[in-house]
């Protein structure tokens, strides 16, 4: 099991008080491991926001949540061929994956040094994980996210070679397809046109939170267990 972090001193607002028309539901708190684990278990994730010219730590629960059904990933023949060209590794270079996802060359970047540090700490406690696509012993792409029980909350992905991030996503879906698959939840925050093309659907907030509740007491997938690393 992951190492339990110190409890958060912060109290998030109850979901019954969230604005039904606003993805942003809270401001403040911190990025300590206990705060992050608590937030993900409540259906929240953090991102920096600018309001009235000031930077804040925002906590989001999208009104329409992006979710990838484990049986809904669209795998083209070319992607299936590409998957045979890469080696999949789990958690071997987590910090490098996060750094690549947060590269300043990427548009609309939000992964600040503070976020990289916070998720690195979460990874070392066994709560955050990377799925990596390697070729010729070089990191070609990957993704990272937070795993709490049966929830895998995907944070970001990147590629340096063709299809590498998609291959990492395919590998993630495959490893989540275990005997608990019907209660696992693969969350990608928002549905974008690119993610929609891969099979991501939108779920109303209330439906998402109910699925999350059912998923939290599911064991982690074997490759993510700390004692297996």
Automatic annotation (TrEMBL):
Catalytic reaction equation(s): N-terminal L-arginyl-[protein] + L-leucyl-tRNA(Leu) = N-terminal L-leucyl-L-arginyl-[protein] + tRNA(Leu) + H(+); L-phenylalanyl-tRNA(Phe) + an N-terminal L-alpha-aminoacyl-[protein] = an N-terminal L-phenylalanyl-L-alpha-aminoacyl-[protein] + tRNA(Phe); N-terminal L-lysyl-[protein] + L-leucyl-tRNA(Leu) = N-terminal L-leucyl-L-lysyl-[protein] + tRNA(Leu) + H(+)
GO molecular function (one): leucyl-tRNA--protein transferase activity
Subcellular location: Cytoplasm
Keywords: Acyltransferase, Cytoplasm, Transferase
E.C. designation(s): 2.3.2.6
Presence of the UniProt keyword Acyltransferase in the record: yes
Pfam families reported for this sequence: Leu_Phe_trans
Top-level EC class as recorded in UniProt: transferase
Top-rank taxon, per record: Bacteria
Function (record text): Functions in the N-end rule pathway of protein degradation where it conjugates Leu, Phe and, less efficiently, Met from aminoacyl-tRNAs to the N-termini of proteins containing an N-terminal arginine or lysine.
Entry's family note: Belongs to the L/F-transferase family.
NCBIfam families: aat (TIGR00667)
Protein known as: Leucyl/phenylalanyl-tRNA--protein transferase
Natural source organism: Nocardioides cavernae
